[in-house]
Amino acid sequence: MMPVTTTLGDSPIVLAMPHGGTFVPDDIAARLNAGGLGLSDTDWHIDKLYEGLLSGATIVQAQFHRYVIDANRGPDGASLYPGQNTTGLCPTTDFDGNDIWREGQAPSADEVEARRLAYHAPYHAALAEALAKTQARHGVAVLYDCHSIRSYIPYLFEGELPVFSIGTNNGASCDAQVEAATVQICRAAPSLNMVLNGRFKGGWTTRHYGQPETGVHAIQMEIAQRAYLAAEAAPWAYSTHVAAPLRAALAKILASLDSLARSGAMPKVIGA
Description:
The chain has a seven-stranded mixed beta sheet, sandwiched between helices. The chain has helices at 26-29, 34-37, 46-50, 109-138, 176-188, 204-209, 240-263; strands at residues 4-7, 13-17, 58-62, 141-149, 164-167, 194-196, 216-224. Helix 5 (176-188) runs antiparallel to helix 7. Helix content is 32%, strand content 14%.
């Protein structure tokens, strides 16, 4: 199993999908408990949700599950949300705060480092390469980090999550025009609510790569899974009917960002 797959395109948009993978090596799966084996914290069908929405987009997908190692955490495992419940670089609990490993089977520090080298590092090497190629071609690159999550997770946040949770690290990870274009389309989407820099302000990927002064802009989109799944429970079935309004809005967002990046409205950085 290749830890990451990359589909190169000629658009200035790079779609990153760090949490859609479901691969767990047999030796690691044998140590997960029944709850962990359910893989409930997957960004289910995130590739299908975005499939065909923007011709020419570069797509970087992690194939491994976040319980192996989380590709959207920094290599040092530091929390981006101090004082709030979260999960780490190699999670020991699920999003509900329940243990995912059999007793005594959680990964050691040495094992976490081995997994980082085997999975996390190749994913980010591929993403960095894709962004460099895109930025070299266009003078700018827009990293659009694709995520989804259950609507109700009291351990992580109160109440029902909006359909669109947009994260730009409070505006630091992208040009203001990227944020504004995304917000405008989300606000106009019928029956699909949104929040900007709420509970999810952008993970490590958004904050690490989003350096507008270098021509690389990053934005995270966290989608509430009720907007495209038949139910937010196993077997986590994708619903074409439910997803249709969401896909229409996402297509408009990606088209708008593609047009913005090509327009010259954002400063181009050549040879960065």
